[in-house]
Amino acid sequence: MATAKKSPAAPAKKAAAKPAAAKKAAPAKAAAEKKPAAPRKPNAAFMKAMTPSDVLAQVVGATPLPRTEVTKKVWDYIKKQDLQDAANRRMINADDKLKAVFGGKAQVSMFEMTKLISDHLK
């Protein structure tokens, strides 16, 4: 009776497979070590100083400001006056000054607010 003996080459194949897997992992590691992206530059359109209308100037001041600063000042005013709706924080309840900016609306969403504010900038 002939018995099948294991050939010595069989364990060598398994050992050769492990280094191949390690080689595959190396390119993925190299891809993760790429240079970090350059810091974002602000868009010049957002940084241009805009003059607020008389109505908006009551909230943010009359000096020309970039759009980003106008939005920050409006949010500061909203938080200081506690004008965010308690149930739905995305909604802004307008007081007399903001009602004039919002076109007479008593309540607007924060997304609609930015559009309404941009109408008051020149």
Automatic annotation (TrEMBL):
Residue runs in coiled coils: none
UniProt xrefs under Gene3D superfamilies: SWIB/MDM2 domain (1.10.245.10)
Residue intervals of the DM2 domain: 45-122
Domain of life: Bacteria
InterPro entries xref list: SWIB_domain (IPR019835), SWIB_MDM2_dom_sf (IPR036885), SWIB_MDM2_domain (IPR003121)
Low complexity bias (residue ranges): 1-30
Annotated stretches, region: Disordered: 1-43
UniProt name for this protein: DM2 domain-containing protein
Species name: Massilia cavernae
